[in-house]
Amino acid sequence: MSKIAVALLHYPILNRHGETSTTAITSIDVHDFARSCAFYDVDPVYLVHPAPAMHALIDDMNDYYINGAGGDKKPARKIMLESIRCVYSLQDALDEADYQLWYTSAEAPEAGSVDPSKLLEIEGNHLIVFGTGWGLDVKNLPPGNGWLSPIEGVGRVRHLSVRGALAIYLDRLRR
Amino acid sequence: MSKIAVALLHYPILNRHGETSTTAITSIDVHDFARSCAFYDVDPVYLVHPAPAMHALIDDMNDYYINGAGGDKKPARKIMLESIRCVYSLQDALDEADYQLWYTSAEAPEAGSVDPSKLLEIEGNHLIVFGTGWGLDVKNLPPGNGWLSPIEGVGRVRHLSVRGALAIYLDRLRR
Which runs of consecutive H residues, i.e. helices, occur in chain B? Predict the structure, then answer.
């Protein structure tokens, strides 16, 4: 039986100049990642950020739903936010379980990449990594088992939001 | 040749008590809807809201990218936001083209609903309608051609964000 977890990386990622950089965690990413992952039975959702103050902010926001009055009014939000785990590095997530590591990118190599619909056929624990900013800074990340196949658009822009990409990957994976 | 457009409804929708209500347009919905639709060649994106001041706010925000300095720095954002159309009612969108009207809901009837992957086999212009708040207030909306099949989760919550649902519907439709 395969188990799926997700990580949203805020460091090390690339900025618009291709330099190693850090982004802020946004509340909309927390809620959309938590919700899509709860909907498709994916857990935990690691938010990777090196700053303790960023963790404190996110934990404080989520505490309103997990332990506070928000969870009484909106029980689904309590359930989904309980999957959120702030960690300082991708390695911290890897230390928690025997994960096979899968990277995603709009520019992922087509050749040799794994179709998300095939991932559940591979036994074990899988960690799917999403980038923010201008994408994953792979040269400063641990070697992965591989890439998931990129989502090919047919339209006028080449990138989805990371929230849209996550939803589509999980849908393809679970169908 | 089929053509797909999308509408995000802020009135008439239901509130938590099941009453006819209005929600605010959020900037994250504008950007995520515009981006996912541009990625999958869907156009226009109608934002349905009855208040002229809400239109003015959205148009002013988008103007920075469509006509202002933002579009020079981020050309993809200019392209995608050009698809956004604020209208006062769903009827205003229907008056613009000979649309076949398709509603979506997490509680859409399974029986008789149309799988999104089949929609392009039906010739003509299609308008797919998404709700905000606690969902579409169908009794106060024009009769549709039908419902798109609901997205079935396997997890711990029953609803996706409307941004996630849009991304998945368009992916299923275009694959």
Answer: 27-39, 52-66, 69-73, 75-81, 90-94, 162-174
Say if the Cβ atoms of A159 and B76 lie within 8 Å.
yes
Q: What percent of chain B has pLDDT over 90?
A: 95
B48, two tokens: 């349905």
Helix (H) or strand (E) holding A97, with range, is none
Residue A130 structure tokens? 């999403």
Average pLDDT over residues A7-15: 98
Nearest-by-Cβ selection for A41 from B76, B154, B161: B154
- What distance separates the 2 farthest-apart alpha carbons in chain A? 49
pLDDT at B110: 76
Mean model confidence pLDDT for chain B: 96
A3-174 CATH pick, 3.40.1280.10, 3.40.50.2300, 3.40.50.150, 3.40.50.1370: 3.40.1280.10
Q: What is the pTM of this model?
A: 0.96
Do residues B105 and B131 touch, judged by C-beta distance below 8 A? yes
Task: Find the CB nearest A168 among B42, B156, B171.
Answer: B171
pLDDT at A1 over 80: no
For residue B96, the model assigns a pLDDT of 96
Provide, as residue numbers in chain B, all residues whose Cβ is less than 8 Å from the Cβ of A153. Answer: 39-41
A110-165 residue pLDDT tens: 788 999 999 999 999 999 999 999 999 999 999 999 999 999 999 999 999 999 99
User: Which residue has 């797919």 as its token pair?
Assistant: B128
Domain B3-50+84-174, architecture per CATH: 3-Layer(aba) Sandwich (3.40)
